Amino acid sequence: MLILDCPYCGVACDETELSPGGEAHLKRFGPDSSEEEFEGYLFVRENPNGVHFERWRHSYGCGKWFHAARCTMTLEVFGTYSAQTFEPPQALKDKISAKRPGWSWRDFA
Amino acid sequence: MADLATVSRLPASGMITLRGDLSGAKIKKAVKAACGQGIPVSGEILGDGARAVAWMSPDELLVMVPYGDVQAVIDAMNKALGGVHALVADVSDARGLFRVEGGSAHEVLARVCPVDLHAASFGVGQFRRTRLAQVAAAFWRHDTGFDVVCFLSVADYVDGVLGNAVTAPRVGALD
Ligand SMILES: [Zn+2]
Q1: Which of A11, A71, A92, B36 has its CA 20 to 30 A from that of B161?
Q2: Residue B36 belongs to what domain range?
Q3: Of B93, B120, B153, which residue sits at a domain end?
Q4: Predicted ipTM?
Q5: What is the CA(A66)–ligand 1 centre distance, in A?
């Protein structure tokens, strides 16, 4: 069972209280983008074996979106953070580096 | 075997949704005027059975007042808010309200909600929005048990779920 802390409510949320929102930090490409950019936005995903960043929504609680960093292999949760950001907070990246030295995910490391 | 607790369905209570920037001075004033309380922090309910305010999300509060006072309170709140970008909505008739009372009331909710209901983790004055079986609900702990709020459209379902949960044998693991 996956348990994530909602950064807004500050409560430990059971997975059944949340809605999954897919991969985190996607940049939207719209009508004026190239075909490659639009394809990347729609279909190209990381699918890592290890450190991963996702979006979740506290749908049965405050209703807000937030981000989560976790390991797809062990299901260890590294942390959650606000949705109002383009990248994970440095403290969280440092925490992941301590546990998974040499990790990288897209442009983050 | 005795039930874990007693579940009763309460008549509609005055409930007002207030959305906006909760740090704003005018919002604070409107809440104070409505129920005599300040702005609750996350997971908190302030006030008593008659007038209270609960934290629903970073930009939403639930103001509770006597049913007959709702329109007057809404008018006063809108006046206090002035030109501030905010929403005040009467949701009194859109909510079902239940009371779960008794020494093992926390065990009833623990059976149907994914919430840590140890007395040390969830005490009097704490408020939680969560999932109750298959629907959204919110509850808070008071001196004699819990009050549970859900959407009126699923109130019969919640009535059935709670009515079933109280018949379970006591576990005692949450005391
Ligand atoms: Zn939340």
Answers
A1: A11
A2: 14-93
A3: B93
A4: 0.92
A5: 9
